Amino acid sequence: MNITNITENMYGTSIETIIHDYAFMELKKTFPNEFADEESHGKFLQKFEAFKNKVALAFEKDPEGTMKKYQQLRASPKPTPESMNEMAYQKPNFERVWDQVKHNAFVNSMGLEKWIEVANTGKDSKISKPSLDNVLDYDPMVKAKDKLMRSHVDMPIILKTPMGDYHLLSGNSVLKGIMNIHGNAKVWYIDASQETANEM
What we know:
The protein has helices at 3-11, 15-30, 38-61, 63-75, 81-86, 98-101, 105-110, 112-119, 172-182; strands spanning 89-90, 123-128, 135-136, 153-154, 157-160, 166-170, 184-191. With 200 residues, it is an alpha/beta fold. The strands form 2 sheets. The protein has a 5-stranded mixed beta sheet. Strands 1-4 form a two-stranded parallel sheet. Strand 5 (157-160) and strand 6 (166-170) form a beta hairpin. Helix 2 (15-30) crosses helix 3. The radius of gyration is 24 Å and the shape is elongated.
């Protein structure tokens, strides 16, 4: 069966449009943040043009089989902007960040071993720009980390102390960069408000 007839009968559109749509959706799965910045978008477009050629060849070799794959792709759940953004986050390595977080007097009083134990009780949590007004040690004037969506980044760490204060222990430039792009971010939140000197 002619591929042009298949597409026009099913969708009332041209094979060129189908190829464009197929290539975009397929590439989007592995390149979810193509609009994060101008450089990322440029690279996405380069890959997109090359990928369209591959899709076109696939339709030439096996039009019905490729159309079936296209239908499955269209029917699959579409990732939300939130889920795509969250793909860039990962849990911090608490031992590796020790040299940075120990500058906080409360954390330093724990020592490395206790710090790792307490840090592992934390959880990922969303924070918005207004909430940062309550977080000590966050410097909004710091230079934002760029190209954040091109690789995984450690979640910034926020700690609540027994005094009830919130402290940003690591990831200031990362947090600033994410806030600039999205207006909210995921952080590793540690509630150490119940820790006491006796327990340490």
